[in-house]
Amino acid sequence: MEKCCGRCALVVATLLLCCVGPARAGDELLTGDMIQLTRQLLGVRSRDATIDLGAGPGSADDPTIAGGSLRVLSIEGDVFDRTYPLFATGWRALRRRGSVYGYVFRGAEPIRRVQVKQGKGLRVFGKGSGLGHTLGGNPTPVRVVLTLGRQQYCMSFGGTVEFTSGVHYLARDAAAPDLCPLP
To answer: What is the pTM (predicted TM-score) of this model?
Structure first.
């Protein structure tokens, strides 16, 4: 019986390590201002001033070359783990006086707009039936990972939460996470 309990503990520990891991060199652990989820809406905002553009334009971190993805997941309540591709063709560089200070993505449903500005923050807007959040149970915490090339921006939303089952989830003022979810 003791061997079974020991093995069970090892299995649980292994499963937990599959969900989160230590931050990699390309990971930015960000504070989150707000996340809003409904069945057909996704909004994310961070005004974390530490946001940078990784290795910058022309590098493996440049989404106009490497593309990106947006992952939204929760392992509580309404369990979901969705990754949305953000193809390189949808990205363009934001320039001021010849220098790149950010990137913007425009796409079709479900992720329609993503904006990342160095030292300013990021915003995500999605709309449509392809989002896949039923909100059958409170999903706190909701983790968000925006990947641009090799650069990952990681947030974990809990903080101040408003939740209406099946209708609405809103979380504000989230501290930066200690860990970034593994791919």
So the answer is: 0.84
Question: Which of 122, 76, 118 is closest to 96 using CA atoms?
Answer: 118
22-33 pLDDT, tens digit each? 444 479 999 999
- State the Cα–Cα distance between residues 134 and 129, nearest whole angstrom: 10
Cα dihedral 13, 18, 20, 21 sign: positive
Pair of tokens at residue 66: 């490497």
Contacts of 164 (CB under 8 A, 6+ apart): 135
In a domain, 49, yes or no: yes
* Count of the separate structural domains present in the chain: 1
Four-point Cα dihedral 81, 151, 160, 169, nearest 10:
-30
The single residue listed with the structure tokens 């946001």 is 51
- Please report the sign of the dihedral spanned by the C-alpha atoms of residue 60, residue 64, residue 68, residue 70: positive
CB 46, CB 122: distance < 8 Å: yes
d(C-alpha 123, C-alpha 103), whole Å = 11
Q: Which domain holds residue 79?
A: 25-178
